[in-house]
Amino acid sequence: MLYDLLKRTIDIIGSLIILAVFSPVILITAVLIKISSPGPAIYTPLRVGRDGNLFKMLKFRSMYMYKINGKFVHAKKYLEKNPKLMREYRENSFKLAHDPRVTQIGKFIRKFSIDELPQLINVAKGDMSLVGPRAYQEDELTHQQRVYPHTKKYVKVILEARPGASGPWQVSGRSFINFDKRVIMDAKYVERRSILYDLWIMMKTPIAMITGRGAV
Fold it and tell me: What is the pTM of this model?
């Protein structure tokens, strides 16, 4: 399919160019994360990709690492030991408005989507695309489809495409948009996707990053 070939070509060339342009930002961010709190600069959460296949997404670490039984573990373990926070996390589409796990550096890089820059490597590898549906957590999809049963048909459509580093929900409010509305937006993107639509989203992405609207 011509669209798929053009999209993959744009993904490879675009991701490599953006990585080169932002390499100083990437280097500085990695150093600041390392010196500001214990733990690696990058972490690799599992996300659901095309056809439901799991892949390791690359992200800058924006949260504290917690020491449990003498070992540093990711901040998600902190939630598992705090039922009240876990309940709030699930009730708010797997987001916390005032997340105590986020570092000072993390607040900044999340607001301006700098933490997402390593995903360009995922794009170059073919795990993701520059533009596509959100890359969901497996437990998020499972839980939210139980809460919103009518979303199952939309999730099925979403999994037909590679998840994107950017997409319709990212440029239209991000965390202000709940799961049920988000998956409808993502499914509509998959159904109407085109190179022109992708380019339109790509042009809106820098504005969303600079304003930081909807980021938590």
Answer: 0.84
Angle ∠(29,33,38) on CA atoms, nearest 5: 165
Is residue 216 included in any domain, yes or no? no
Please give the tally of structural domains in the chain: 1
Query: Are the C-beta atoms of 102 and 159 separated by less than 8 Å?
Result: no
**Winning range, highest mean pLDDT, from 32-36, 73-77, 85-89, 209-213:** 32-36
Domain that holds residue 51: 2-211
The answer to whether position 140 is within a domain reads yes
- pLDDT 10s digits, 144-190: 899 899 999 999 999 999 999 999 888 876 556 788 888 999 999 99
d(CA 1, CA 176): 35
